[in-house]
Amino acid sequence: MKRLRALLVAICAGTMLFIMVDAKAARPSLILTAEGVEAIRKSRQARQTYPLFEAAFEDAKARVERSIAEGVLVPTPVDPGGGYTHERHKENYKVIHDAGILFQLLGDKRYLRHATDMLLAYAEIYEDLPLHPVQKRQSPGKLFWQNLNESVWLVHVVQGFDAIADALSDKDRAIIEDHLLRPVADFLSLQNPETFQKIHNHGTWAAAGVGMTGYALHDPSLVERAVLGLTGDGTSGFLAQLDQLFSPDGYYTEGPYYQRYALMPFVLFAQAIDHNEPERKIFEHRNGVLLKAIDATIQQSYAGKFFPINDAIKEKGLDTQELVYAVAVAFSRTGRNDLLSIADYQGKTVLTGDGLTVARAVSEGAGQSFAFRTMMLRDGPDGDQGALAILRMGDGPLAQTIVAKNTSQGMGHGHFDKLSYILYDNGREILTDYGAARFLNVPSKDGGRYLLENQSWAKQTIAHNTLVVNESSQFGGDWKRAQKYWPTVRYFEAGERLNVVSASLENAYPDTVIERTVVQLDHPAFAAPLLIDVMSASSQEKATFDLPFYFDGQIVDFSGALQANTESRKPLGQAHGYQHLWVEATGQPTNGLLRFSWLNARRFYTLHAVAPEKTKPVFVRTGANDPDFNLRDQQGLILRSNGRKAVRFLSVIEPHGIYNPAAEFTAGSDSQIARIDHVFEAGADLIKIEMKTGEIIRLAISNDPDSEKTHRILSAGHEWAWRGFVTVLEEE
Amino acid sequence: MKRLRALLVAICAGTMLFIMVDAKAARPSLILTAEGVEAIRKSRQARQTYPLFEAAFEDAKARVERSIAEGVLVPTPVDPGGGYTHERHKENYKVIHDAGILFQLLGDKRYLRHATDMLLAYAEIYEDLPLHPVQKRQSPGKLFWQNLNESVWLVHVVQGFDAIADALSDKDRAIIEDHLLRPVADFLSLQNPETFQKIHNHGTWAAAGVGMTGYALHDPSLVERAVLGLTGDGTSGFLAQLDQLFSPDGYYTEGPYYQRYALMPFVLFAQAIDHNEPERKIFEHRNGVLLKAIDATIQQSYAGKFFPINDAIKEKGLDTQELVYAVAVAFSRTGRNDLLSIADYQGKTVLTGDGLTVARAVSEGAGQSFAFRTMMLRDGPDGDQGALAILRMGDGPLAQTIVAKNTSQGMGHGHFDKLSYILYDNGREILTDYGAARFLNVPSKDGGRYLLENQSWAKQTIAHNTLVVNESSQFGGDWKRAQKYWPTVRYFEAGERLNVVSASLENAYPDTVIERTVVQLDHPAFAAPLLIDVMSASSQEKATFDLPFYFDGQIVDFSGALQANTESRKPLGQAHGYQHLWVEATGQPTNGLLRFSWLNARRFYTLHAVAPEKTKPVFVRTGANDPDFNLRDQQGLILRSNGRKAVRFLSVIEPHGIYNPAAEFTAGSDSQIARIDHVFEAGADLIKIEMKTGEIIRLAISNDPDSEKTHRILSAGHEWAWRGFVTVLEEE
């Protein structure tokens, strides 16, 4: 089936690779293949239609018919993201892509004609285009303000071309190849070496565009450039991207928002490679890291939305087009039925053989609920740069989920939020992560770019549920320095009734060590799992320690007296994000237990905190120093301890009750916990939770990963003994 | 079928009424009837099951089985709303109700036994109970803190009794009748004459409970008391409630939130009357006002939620149990198929013959989309106390909807918000009404009662989208005075492309007349209808006029320079709700056009305002002087004009564009309007809207309801002539 025409040998990452380029494979051969076309045609002839596939089919038809009605619109590029020419060129690449595929599937020459006209119109102008007049800081494009968009354009357009190439006249095909596709590929590689050689999603998109063009044009040199980089030695290019950007667990160092985006060129180019050169076994590369990455992307979501860690638009979720491709590919390669529930949620699939397979399986009812699980996703190319811990407890996709961010910085889009966590419960985000300060593609909001407040607020440590020392961000807010350090995961355990992750962080602050242990405990005395959190820090000097909890919902109760700033408000500080927080109210310095309850939609939550002596509770709200109304509204409670060298905060978060105003029904709006005691002795924590019913739950944390050792702690005259990092103590 | 045993003659509201009480009708005969039982049994025997009915059936079974497992729990009443004993007694009335009905439908004696045991347990304690220890300000109950709950309890419990009465031993029946039902009925009427005689939903509930007890106990005197009041002359009682609480259009003076609640005793007691004494033709009373009221309740909703005017919990919507009853009754009496879409939305029905009819019709696919329409609901017993105008434009249930509140005060739960409006668009509330400050049944929020902030903020004029004069509320915030006045609706017109309502208000402020004309215009130049709003006021003295727009969403653009209070915030004022508003930013005094855009979910909105010279824009946010965090977060823009005797504000609200961050697609985020001019001359408004495309739209408002007169206005040398209150002018 595949005929060999060229054989290149190269050394890449210490491995001998045989690069075999079939210069004249049967087209189409990128994502849609000749076999896929046949399967789809047969299925349609047999009138076997499947809703997910039909949805994609109808979308494509509507898009192309609309474009045919409008005529060929290839405007001179002038607008930034969100503007007319930007959106037009985005739409055009989809039109060319879809028209090519529809021509393959239906054989309708109107689609061939339209795709050809579009491509010729671009070929007419492309080479003479100057750089885009509105240039992003780096790496401008010609059709778009940044060449990233141009790579995405090429990845789509070349698929449309691949689908019609054999039906083109030699003249038209030569014009399109020589005056459009090859120039774009050269522009994105030879003329933009910095982007092309970057180990970064921009580089992956460029490699995918260039490499897929190589296959479509039967040009092995373009494929080689894409796979092994400009210098041909594998120090850049697709394989280097695949080796360095994903951890062995398939975690992408920038986090799920960019993982979703980065996944698409990886998946598409890998598909194209596999269709043209299956001998490369690209999907088996690094123990199948690409399929692991697809699974990891889905795992990093709750209620359909991605965990919004690092720079992330919170609306993004599993139904994005990138994941539609990924799920189709993963299902057809693994046959994992639980992927079908994701496809079903997406409501559509892709117009390829894989898409048909998925759509058919969903229609036949083969789907199962996706296997969301408790897991640790190690970060770093070698998996030794911290980890994202996902703790889940309960049944189904909306099981309570804790996301502990013990990863590395994640480059320029990373936030200074090590050891922070997000709590999801009952289908909603309860303790929240702000995500990015950005309104995607809204021109009046700085052209849809990241806003200044993304730097001044969203990235800063105080914007997250983690400890801040002396009102400054981790690593002084310098991401290049932050990039060199990461937390050490001391312990991780996933159990049926108890999950735990513990990590420590050095170097974020001078001479300071921070440790956090997060336990998720399912106990029969409670309707929902408890989150138990021990956050400690020790420093050489006396310091101010701020531990924030950003909650979503309405404050309904607080245990102490509050001094509310009812007549005037001031910001909490001057820099590192503090300037954006209004101080709404301050509590009395506490000794002992502090209790705070809020209502989120239909459930109540109570935070019980045993904080260091004289800790001051401060209620804050975003919005200070925000003259352009760029921030969203977000409330938080900060526990502030002043003038100590070491602190140890115990926080227990208890979901309880039900609030149903529609049915006028409320129950369990009070916490069931009467009292919590916390003893820390000889390195171990003993936590005693006393229920209002009198029942007592004792949790012991040895802070020692050695599972063989026996630990002892003396409390109120009783000696407790146990083994393991954390355990629920039972009375003898 | 119905045998006559007693014949009473009474005079009520000038009409001769024959009150015929059948002292021994075949039980059950209240809501569930013997015929209904037979139909349901037959349907189940034939294995004809319908999801809506089965949902109700399974709910009831689960509830009663749970209660049987728990045993009879009739605690001594101690807790206020939301507390244990309160919720327990609420649950119990549902258990007794459901157990009785299940006994009828299934013949299972376990249900008979449980209902009997429950009733006997209550009979054991009821007479000796003192008034509830936690008494609401007025009208305490014995089982509950207010006797309103006790009426609701009786309405349910007597239905359960009615269903089992004929199966009880004579002894048990006598105990329950003499030591429970009759004492409760007497307590709610004879011993609480003030509530019982009040023309108010509390009175309706009491009348329904007492009257239904009369039918169940075959006691005509109780029925008479309920129908004609304590004095038997019709000055109070059910008929008086029906005559005075609803307007001829079926509008309930307190607004939809209480209409929904009040509807239930009306519907239930009317059903019971009709089942026992069809001769009364109660559903035909006042031209079928009860069925009109059911329709009006549904009309007063958007996206399933009721318009939150006056004291209202915003979560309440069409799926509340009250509406489930109402829809079942209305469908079985009218056969209106569009009611079935509401039943379908509710997802359940009631366990009666009517319920079966609805469930069957839904299952057979007979449903049609509910006929939401543009309409005016006149307020007041005679329909002459203002009106609620509902303007709708577009297709389907999510068509753009404007709710203009030109009604009377609506008694103690009314807000001082005459001439305000709410704008719904694209499925969401865009210009909002705060609703009530209350967390229903949350003990830590003042026991779930209306909070102090309901008075200090939610009711005040400044909390609404209407004009405030001199920083004080309409009628000085005195509802009893406000109760005497209402707006005059000058004009109302519903058209295919243009809806309009215009009203004027006197007496709200000394020597001040306020007028507002709201136009909803569907014009081909725009993707969605425009809201065009002319608000004017004239006063004897120079005054400060504040016109607020409370918007939901993120500010994305503003036409002028803003002075943001970035480092410190102060409240806008000291009283009448102003003390709760933080001043976020102030704009420069404007001359000419002011433009403000915000983003709500997936659509952009731009307010174009042509305000009086030197009007100052002020951005505000709730939260000042709110020490207990009782307020929700709400942003607004206030247009403030100072030092004039007369003002005229033109506001045009333009929905535009689409924002889709999941698909990374944004379009039309800029307004399409380049400029707006407003000429007011000889009593007429000429509004010129100039599009960015150059197209011009001219709207003329004559402010004259006389449709025969020709109006003329001179503008820029051109004389325009037209007929009618409002018109789109076409160039000759």
TrEMBL record, chains A, B:
Residues 376-641 form the Heparinase II/III-like C-terminal domain. The keyword Isomerase does not apply. This is Alginate lyase family protein. Its main location: periplasm. Residues 1-25 form the signal peptide. SUPFAM superfamilies: Chondroitin AC/alginate lyase. It holds the Pfam family Hepar_II_III_C. Keywords: Lyase, Periplasm, Signal. Residues 97-301 form the Alginate lyase domain. It comes from the Bacteria. It is found in: Periplasm. The keyword Signal applies.
